[in-house]
Amino acid sequence: MRDPKAMLVGAAGYLREHPGELVRAAKNAVRLRFGVPLDALRWLLKHATGPKAPKQVALEAVPPGLRCTATLKVMGTDLEVSAVLYVEGVTFGPETLSLELRLSEVALRLLDPDSDTPLAALVKSGALDLSKPGNLVAFMPKRPAALVDAADDRLVVDLAKLPKLARSRSFRHLTELVSPLVSVSRVSTDDEEHLDLWLSGFPQGWRSAVEALRGAVSQLIANPPGRDFRIN
Questions:
Q1: Number of separate helices (H) and strands (E) present in the chain
Q2: DSSP single-letter state for residue 61
Q3: Residue 158: count of CB within 10 angstroms of its CB
Q4: What are all long-range contacts of 57-61, with beta carbons under 8 Å and residues at least 24 apart?
Q5: Is the pLDDT of residue 1 over 50?
Q6: Which one in 134, 143, 216, 221 has a CA-CA gap of 20 to 30 Å to 156?
Q7: Considering the entire predicted model, what is its pTM?
Q8: What are phi and psi of 138, to 5 degrees?
Q9: CA–CA separation, 19 vs 147, rounded Å?
Q10: What is the distance between the alpha carbons of residues 232 and 227, in angstroms, rounded to a whole number?
Q11: What is the mean pLDDT of residues 166-190?
């Protein structure tokens, strides 16, 4: 990923070209709704680095879902993968940041028609049941640490289990402070090419939120966060 300075410069340039985004953000903030332009996500994905990062990623709003297309290597096979992604639920707290995802219209295409890997043979045969991608993911030999469940057309991903976040005290402090105050009630796309987060205030009531917040602040004072939460 590019350095934070480059990201800020890119964001500033985007806002100069799309001043209406600031007005939209101000109006939505009153309703506890926060949107991210898909162009911003496309920019971030374009500059993603690493040998396992997906390539040629394309995003398209299919309200309320998001169509994702990318090329990647799976079990030694180069594939183009496409699916419409729906976020069915979000749960976050001191020890979890989980997303319940539903996939539809899943499609696989071999980038090399002459590939002779076992996976390529399955794709060519049409034997894979793409209507239940979760069942296929469940049999992956090396499942990502963040993938906690997969069945039928659903996946559950817990980002808090990513090694970097699992070790981060700063991330834990952040979730302890935020989770009593808001919860995510909905994640969806719209016709204006935005990915929107709809928030609900005080999910357990304001009294419980105040008590939880006091406890989180006390823990934060007793154990100040270090510099262990960085996005490189």
A1: 8, 9
A2: E
A3: 20
A4: 61/189, 61/190, 61/191, 61/193, 61/194, 61/195
A5: no
A6: 216
A7: 0.79
A8: -60, -25
A9: 38
A10: 13
A11: 85
Contact (CB, 8 A) for 130 and 104: no
Which single residue is written with the structure tokens 């090329």? 71
Residues, the chain: 232
pLDDT, one tens digit per residue, over 6-41 is 667 667 767 777 778 888 888 888 888 898 999 888
Give the gyration radius of the chain's Cα atoms: 20
Decide if 66 contacts 84 (C-beta within 8 A). Answer: yes
Average model confidence (pLDDT) for the chain? 84
Contact 80, 71 (CB under 8 A): yes
Distance between CA atoms of residues 59 and 210, nearest Å: 39
Three-state secondary structure along 159-219? HHHCHHHHCCHHHHHHHHHHCCCEEEEEEEECCCCEEEEEEEECCCCHHHHHHHHHHHHHH
Question: Residue 95 corresponds to which amino acid?
Answer: E
Contact 49, 57 (CB under 8 A): no
Say what the pLDDT of residue 189 is: 96
Q: Where are the alpha helices (DSSP H) in the chain?
A: 4-17, 20-30, 38-46, 118-125, 133-138, 163-166, 169-178, 206-222
